[in-house]
Amino acid sequence: MPHKLLVASELVKQEGRRRLERYAEVFSSDGLDREKLLALLPELDSLIVFFWPKFLTAENLAKMKKLRFIQSILVGVNHVPFEALDERVVVCSNAGAYSLEVGEHAMALLFAASKRIAEHHLRIREGNADLASFAGAAKEMVVLEGKQLGVVGYGGIGRKVGDLGAAIGMRVLAYSRRRQKARGVKFCYGAAGLENLLRSSDAVVLSVPLSNSTSGMLGERELSMMKEEAILVNIARGDLVDQRALYEWLKRNRRAVYATDAWWFREGHETLSTDYPLPSLPNFLGTPHISGLVGLLSGRPAELAVENTLRYLRGMKPRNVVRRAEYLSQAR
Amino acid sequence: MPHKLLVASELVKQEGRRRLERYAEVFSSDGLDREKLLALLPELDSLIVFFWPKFLTAENLAKMKKLRFIQSILVGVNHVPFEALDERVVVCSNAGAYSLEVGEHAMALLFAASKRIAEHHLRIREGNADLASFAGAAKEMVVLEGKQLGVVGYGGIGRKVGDLGAAIGMRVLAYSRRRQKARGVKFCYGAAGLENLLRSSDAVVLSVPLSNSTSGMLGERELSMMKEEAILVNIARGDLVDQRALYEWLKRNRRAVYATDAWWFREGHETLSTDYPLPSLPNFLGTPHISGLVGLLSGRPAELAVENTLRYLRGMKPRNVVRRAEYLSQAR
User: Fold this and answer.
1) Among A120, A279, A296, whose Cβ lies nearest the Cβ of B290?
2) Beta-carbon separation of A117 and B287 below 8 A
């Protein structure tokens, strides 16, 4: 019996499929009608997914007795329904696949926030034609050179952010679960390390996966530790930050800025609709979770997903295996 | 007879004035009434100015027979009325004084433009809550790593921009009048060099002074040489770019972006009012000439102006002497 693999995303192109076909019988969800697809599920050994496919309900997953491997094309796996998966199923994230594009986007948000680019552009666009009226705003602008950049999470994206921060002359302090070493970067560990990072950094970039242990990790207590004029950049997932606490922190600290590419989940989906009127605040800067899409356009995420699946198919240890316990019973 | 110096800006603080007093009798325009000020003019040997003082009209300048030295606290000297100055007057710019703050601002504009930060933020702020509607926009976003950054003008600010560009992994090509060398930077010279830079760069930063030879240096012909999706950053002076040609270029090339901190002069003053509705274009990004103000807050420009004036007073060759011919008869 050959290994049966379902590719549930059009992002894996012909060439990738051909490479996979040397080790498995490869099916494409977009090439099968619903009946055939459902009939195939119990025979499948592995899956490559992007967004979680709607047809893979808990009920249908229960029928997939042979399933042992899932490769995500997204870097995060918080969209995977771990509760409905047999614990023998190995789930792999796609860490590193988007590091360049997402890391650059984090720097773009940091630079834009530090110089209040969007806020000033908006005022000019609305017809404020008096140059002198902006003079006071210079006091709110932050010079990045010499300031401390705290990087929370040192995976592929965190590393890229740390490298870019050090390159432009910032002092970089990174929080990591694992012991790490990197040129121009200091590391801290554990709860005390994170607290120190939040208290001492001029800018903080969030680049951790959303999991049980990170959901809501920045609440009222943590935000209140931060400097009044801190810039908080979220390049990972909206739900790392407690929305209500954030809203109150930004209202209270006019000089603090929250700059994000990631938004909160509502009913299982990320949405630009917020529970509090964050986008109306002058110190909130948002982009529409677009950095990963730029990475996708490079083709690299799908390529790396294929590479890692090939490792699994050839009996090698796949990369980026996620710890199931960190994602069980998580409110998505 | 002691040397008489008039400090015509409050930016030079007590400590700076004390240092100057060791070599000259120092007057402050804000400490003198109009009558005394006018009586003093014929006796003055030197001046430190920020914006050009209103009382220094052509008529009053004609009375200043002893004047031999003017130090600008602004980096540019296009505000100095060279036509009304005796040719024996040495005029010094303040090159280098704002390099850090203005260089970082240039990078902030470049990053913001490359990721369309302000454009997307604005759409979200206007209530566009549909994440999916932004998917197509990813194609318009530019990854900076590996792309070519053309730096036009390699003074203090140009050098800082080149350093930052190389640090984030861009290939840097700089246009300079003088032969230069710098790690990670290639140089080009002359009209052919500039043309090659414009044709081959993915992003161009303007960091030249506004003078006879640079006013309107980017007109229809030069803009049409540039890549369709080029990002043009102006961190120097609005009038380097022909406003009408720019408007037409941006209308024609939806993927090109013009990101500027500098605005055009009208009746001798820089203003956010434009002759063409540039700020309404989605590919125009503007900040209110604020980068220099951030530099001013550091106190460094006034300090460096004092340092250079001290060099002159002590008989040393002052730095940043400008070539008078480049500023004569210039439409300001």
Assistant:
1) A120
2) yes
Cβ B322 vs Cβ B294: under 8 Å: no
User: Which helix (H) or strand (E) segment is B244 a member of?
Assistant: helix B243-252
**Distance, CA of A67 to CA of B99 (rounded, Å):** 59
Contacting residues for B148 by C-beta, under 8 A, at least 6 apart: B170, B171, B172, B173, B200, B201, B202, B203
Residues 6+ apart with CB under 8 A from A15: none
Q: Is B272 on the interface with A (CB under 8 A)?
A: yes
Q: Which residue in B72, B60, B57 sits closest to B8, CA to CA?
A: B72
Q: Do A129 and B272 touch (CB under 8 A)?
A: yes
Structural tokens at position A268: 């299982």
- ipTM exceeding the 0.90 mark: yes
- Those of residues 159-218 in A touching chain B at CB distance below 8 A are 164, 167-169
Token pair, residue B12, equals 């030079």
Range list of H helices, chain A: 14-21, 34-40, 58-62, 99-114, 117-125, 156-167, 190-200, 220-225, 243-252, 291-297, 300-313
* Each residue's pLDDT tens digit, A242-261: 999 999 999 999 999 999 99
| Size of chain A in residues | 332
At A16-26, the pLDDT tens digits run: 999 999 999 99
- CA gap A136, B296 in Å, rounded: 12
Short-list B93, B113, B109, CA closest to B101: B109
Of B120, B129, B296, the CB nearest to A271: B129
Here the tokens at position B103 are: 């260089």
Q: Could you tell me the mean pLDDT of each successive run of 10 residues in chain A, 332 residues long? A: 94 96 95 93 97 94 97 93 95 95 98 97 89 89 97 96 97 95 94 98 97 96 98 98 98 97 93 96 96 92 97 97 85 44
